[in-house]
Amino acid sequence: MKARARLLDLYADGDGLVLWFRLDSGGLLRLTDTFRYRFYADGPKQVLRGLVQKLGRYLRGTAWVRRREFWSGAVIPVLECTLSSPERLPAVQRLLAEEITRGLTFYNCDLAVPQYYAWGKGVFPFCRCDIEWEGTALKEVAVLDSPWDPDAPLPDLKRLRMELTEHPHIPLDRGNALRIESEGVSFELTASDLEDLLDQLNRLVAREDPDLILTTQGDARIFPFLWKWARQGRGPFAFDRDPTPPPRKQVGQGRSYFSYGRVLYQSTAFPLFGRLHVDEDNSFFYREAGLAGILFLSRLTRIPLQALARSSPGTAVTAMQIQRALEKDLLIPWKKGRPESFKSAWDLLVADKGGLVLQPPTGLWERVAEIDFVSMYPTIMVRHNISPETILCRCCPEPVVPEAGYNICRKRKGLIPETLEPILALRRELKSRKKAGHPEKDRYDGMQKALKWMLVTCFGYMGYKNARFGRIEAHEAITAFGREKLLAAKETAEEEGFQVLHGLTDSLWITGPHLTEENLGRLLDRITFRTGIPISLEGIYHWVVFLPSKVSPGRPVANRYFGLFQDGSVKIRGIDCCRSDTPPFIREVQKDLLLTLAEARTGKDLEERIPLLMDRLCSHLEALQEGRVDPCLLVIRKRVGRPLDDYHAHTPTVSVLEELEAKGITLFPGQRVGFLIKEHSEPFNSRTPVIPETFLQGNEAYDAAKYIDLTVRAAKEILSFYRNEINELFTKYHVKYNIKQKNIVKIDSKKSNLIF
C-alpha cells in the first residue's frame, strides 16, 4: 500500500525500528523496519580475528572496507562489523571496551540507534514523505521536504497538559492532585483513591488520544509514581499508544552532575511509545525556544522529539556534527583518547587566556553605545577553519594563531566549520524575518533561539575533555582570534574618536561627543572589514550604570550593570533581580524601581526621580511591615549542594532537608529547596527558623525586618550611581516621610541593620 504521511516518532524495538506516521487522510499508522547496525574496527589483523571470534554470536557478518579516518583524513582499511540485532549493542560495547587495551580502535559503535537509522535512510522526525508498506513492514520511504526549510509546515499535534496542583515535592498519595487541560477544558483529578485515579487517567488518554502530552514534573514525579503504582498490580499503565511497547526500564532517580562550578540535577527521562511526552521542567530547549523551537530542532538534528527535548545543546550540535561526518564517509571515533599536547607553564600562560575583558569605570555614563560581534566564536571557527582535525596538522606548518602560534590546515575544510556554516546562515535568515515583523515572527524566534544555544555551546564543547569532537588547542585558538578581533575593534573605535569604556569577550561599550547612528554605522563597517567578523549595534543607551563588586566596592565587575536604551528597553546584568535565589517579591521591587528610573533620560533626570523612587520603595516596605505580602513571594530558593549526610554546618538549607526527610521526601544534589524565614527569628544565622516552601499555605507570618533588610539592599544596589552617601540618602527621605506623611514605614534599625 502507498500513502502520503508525516513521520511522528521512531524508536528501537527488538531487531529494528518502530515508526509512527500520521497519514494525510488523518489516520495513524504503526510500521516496523529492519536496521543493520554497522561499526568499524582498526588494528592488527590477528587481534581483529580474535575479536570476531569473541563477538561471533552477536554478529551477522563482517567485511573489509575502506573508510576515511577523522584525524588524518587518510582512507584506511577497516573491519566492518554488522550486528545481528541493534538490541545487542550494549552487550557488544561492554566487550569492545575490554579490547581497547589490545591496540584496537573502534568507530561508529556508540551512535544512537534511531538517529543512525534516520541518517542512513535520509528521514527525520516530522518529515513529509511518501511511504509504501506491506502488512506492518515499511518497504519504501521518500522524503518530500527539507529539515533546513524554515517555512516547512510544522505538525499540528493534539495536546494534553498535565501538572500537579500542589508543590511537586508532595507525592500524589499524600495530598497532591492532577490538573488536566485538553481542548481548552481544564479540570482536576484527586488522588484519594489511587486505583480510581489511574483508571480515570487511562480512560482519559484513550478518549482524547493526544499526540503530545505536556507535563510539569512529569519525568520526576507524575509518570514514575503512576507507573510504579501500576506495577504493583493496581491497574494498567495505558499511556503508550503502542499496543506492544518495548520493555520499559526501571525508573530510578535522576543524576547529579557538575557544570561550570555548579551542582545540577536532571530528572530521569520517561518517554512514551507511540505518543510524545515533553516535561517542561526537564527540557532546556522547551524553556528557551518553546514548542516550535524543539519541533524544528528535532527535524534538523534528526533526534526524536522526546530525546531532543531532554538533550543539552551540546548533544544537539554533536548530533549535527555526526551527521556531517557520516555524509563525508568519515569514521567517528569511540572513546576519544587524544590527550592534550604537553605545554610548559609559559606556553599555558600565553595560550590559555580565555576571552578579553576590559574592566569598566564604575558609575553613571550617559550616551553610550553597545556594539557586539555577531556569533563571534562560531564565525571564527568557520572563517579560520578551526576544527580538532585541522589544528596543528602535519601538512601546513605555518603558524597563524595569534600568540599561541598554532598552525591550521589549509588543504581540507574542517568538520566543525562545515557543520556550523549553514547553521549560522539559517539563524541570520530567521533573525532577519523576525526583525522584519513577519507574521510568523514568534515561530521564527523560537527557531533562532534553538540555533543560538547550539552555536553558544559549540565553542565550550570544543574545550570539553569528553566532547566527541573536542580539542583544547582548537579552543585556545578560537579565544586567541577572539582577543585579537576585540582589540582590533577597540583600536578602530579609538581611531574614529570614540572612548572605549568597557569590553567583554565579543562586545564593546563606547562613548564620545560624536555618537550618532551615522558615525556608528561607519565604525561598524570598518570593524567588520578589518576583522572579517560582522559586528552590529546592540543599542544606544540614554544612560548606563556600571556597578562595583559587592565584595570589594572599589573594584569594577565586568558583568554587573544596568542601563536604558533609546528604544525604552532596560538591560540588566548581574543584579539581584537576575539571581535565581532572590525572592520573587524583592525581584519585582527592584524591577519596579528600575522602571521608575527608566522614565529619566539624563543623569540629572535620574537624580530628580529619586524622591519618586524612594516613595515607591517605602510603599513596598510598608507592605512588608504590615504583613500584606504573600509569603509565597518571599521564598528564598537555594540549590542543594551535596547529600544531607555530607553537610557539616547547620544552614537553613539543611533545616529544610531534614524536615523534608522526616516526611519521607528525599532531595538530591542539584535540586532546589525553598524556605520562608519565620516571624521574630533571631539574627540570621545557621539556626534561623525557616518553613519549607513545600508546606506553605500562604498565611504564614514572616520576619518583616529581615525581608525589609533584603529589599533595601536590592534598592541600594541600583542607587550606587548616586554621587552622595547612600545611607545619607535613606536618612534624608526617612525624615521627610516622618514629617509630611501619615503612612510611614516604621522600621526598627537594630533589627534591619539599616540607618535611616
List keywords for this structure.
756 residues; alpha+beta; OB fold (Dihydrolipoamide Acetyltransferase, E2P); Alpha-Beta Plaits; 5 domains; seven-stranded antiparallel sheet; five-stranded antiparallel sheet; globular; disordered C terminus
Briefly note the structural class of the backbone: alpha+beta
Helix content: 25-40%
Low-confidence stretches: 735-756
Total strands: the figure is 26
Alpha plus pi helix count: 21
Output the strand order for the largest sheet: 17-19-20-18-21-22-23
The assigned CATH architecture of the largest domain is Alpha-Beta Complex
Count of spatially separate domains: 5
How is the main sheet built? 7 strands, antiparallel
Q: What's the CATH topology label of the largest domain?
A: Palm domain of DNA polymerase
CATH level 1 name of the largest domain: Alpha Beta
Mean pLDDT: 90
Radius of gyration, CA atoms, in whole angstroms: 30 Å
Assess the beta-strand content as a share of residues: 15-25%
